[in-house]
Amino acid sequence: MQLIQGSTTVAQNKATEAKEVYQRAGSKPMPSYVSPVAKGLTSTEHYIYNDLTHGLSIREIATKQNIAEKTVKFHSTRIYKKLGVKSVKGLMALEIGYYRGAL
């Protein structure tokens, strides 16, 4: 039993350490929910993707993520290209299609 508790403590310490490394490097860990539609996106792109598909504006996302609006637009463009859509409406169509079983 002590071995399991010790392993759990080590794992928790490693997880905390990894999170701190991400934060120091300026990167974010993946969000707790990652849409199956959004495979191949970076962690920052996932956060922006989630915000876009939840109806937030570019300005709202910039404020929430504490980044410039221009940065949100840059990442949005990369998301559109990676997923083969041209707008937020395209992202929404992908999400709806996936959950309705069309994809």
Quick overview:
The protein has helices at residues 2-25, 43-53, 58-65, 69-83, 88-99. The chain is built from five helices and no strands.
Q: Would you give an account of this structure?
A:
With 103 residues, the protein is mainly alpha-helical. It has two domains: 1-27; 31-99, Orthogonal Bundle (Arc Repressor Mutant, subunit A). It has helices spanning 2-25, 43-53, 58-65, 69-83, 88-99. Helix 3 packs across helix 4 (69-83). It is globular, with a radius of gyration of 17 Å. The mean pLDDT is 80.
Classify the helix fraction into a percent range: 55-70%
What name does the CATH topology of the largest domain carry? Arc Repressor Mutant, subunit A
Low-confidence stretches: none
Number of domains: 2
What is the assembly state of the chains in this entry? single chain
| Tally of DSSP β-strands | 0
Q: What's the overall average pLDDT, rounded?
A: 80
Corresponding CATH architecture of the largest domain: Orthogonal Bundle
Summed up, the helix count is 5
- CATH class wording of the largest domain: Mainly Alpha
What structural category do the secondary elements indicate? mainly alpha
Tell me about the largest β-sheet: none
Terminal Cα separation, in Å?
46 Å
Rg over alpha carbons: 17 Å
Give me the CATH superfamily of the largest domain.
Winged helix-like DNA-binding domain superfamily/Winged helix DNA-binding domain
Strand content: under 5%
Order of helices and strands: HHHHH
The outline comes out as globular
